[in-house]
Amino acid sequence: MLEEKRETTLGETLISLLKARSLSMRKLSTLTGIDTATISRIVNGKQKAKPSHLEIFALHLGVPTAQLLQAAGFEVSVLHPNRSTNIHASIDSISEVLQASNLMNYTFTSELVQKELNKYEPYALTEEGQRIILNEFPAKVASVNGAGPFIDELKQMYLQYGETGIALERRAIIGSALLYFVLSIDVIPDYVFPLGYLDDAIAVQLVLDRLNHTPNTTVAKK
Question: How far apart are alpha carbons 72 and 68 in whole angstroms?
């Protein structure tokens, strides 16, 4: 009976999150690569969700993995005692999906994404980098047709990137995420549908973490 209650709680949580984000189960399937029928069975309590399912759901629904794990009745501290953020849980889940689908022949890690972000930081401060971001970001957003909640974060970053007086360090960090999204050379190529934007979502989380530890000191106006 307790198990039944846990699944109902998870189902209600997922339905509420989908409704709040104007997403259908079919759209969530498209975003996550998890079959629509599987999502439906999980939502309706007919199939027990795996932690890997919940971690990918959390990534695309923009909530902490722990929220969904707890709703499903898992002991979060036992499952992931050494994980302090949602990023590492998501990384493991993405790796599982990629390996199971035989779409990639190497292990996906956050270090690979961070390495690309590091390369883009100085480029984001150049005239060419700025031109690419300001001119091509709107078209790229339109082309993905709202690939997930991380798009909202990118839109906010786009606005911040264009602000006058923003500290150069923050501008570079923000610009790295925007360039990672706009340019087609990703750790997981965008054409690997529907998994191609999972690394973009991870890049956004990595950049948000960086920004949380970077002083928001504006450039003094002359």
Answer: 6
% of the chain surpassing 70 pLDDT: 70
Question: Closest by alpha carbon to 190, among 204, 201, 175, 176?
Answer: 201
For the chain, domain boundaries:
2-101, 110-212
Among 48-62, 87-101, 120-134, 207-221, which range has the highest average pLDDT?
Answer: 120-134
Mean pLDDT over residues 141-163, rounded?
81
Average of per-residue pLDDT across 71-93: 56
Contact at 8 Å (CB) between 43 and 11? Answer: yes
Q: For 110-140, give the secondary structure using H, E and C.
A: HHHHHHHHHHHHHHCCCHHHHHHHHHHHHHH
Q: Name the pTM for this structure.
A: 0.59
- Do residues 122 and 176 lie in contact, with contact meaning Cβ atoms separated by under 8 Å? no
H helices within 145-217, ranges in order? 150-161, 168-182, 198-212
Both structure tokens of 86: 């949602």
Say which DSSP state 149 is in.
Answer: T
Measure the CA–CA gap between 65 and 84, rounded to whole angstroms.
Answer: 11
Is the pLDDT score of 118 beyond 70?
Answer: yes
The tokens for 27 are 């759209």
CATH for the stretch 2-101: 1.10.260.40
The answer to whether 166 touches 86, Cβ cutoff 8 Å, is no
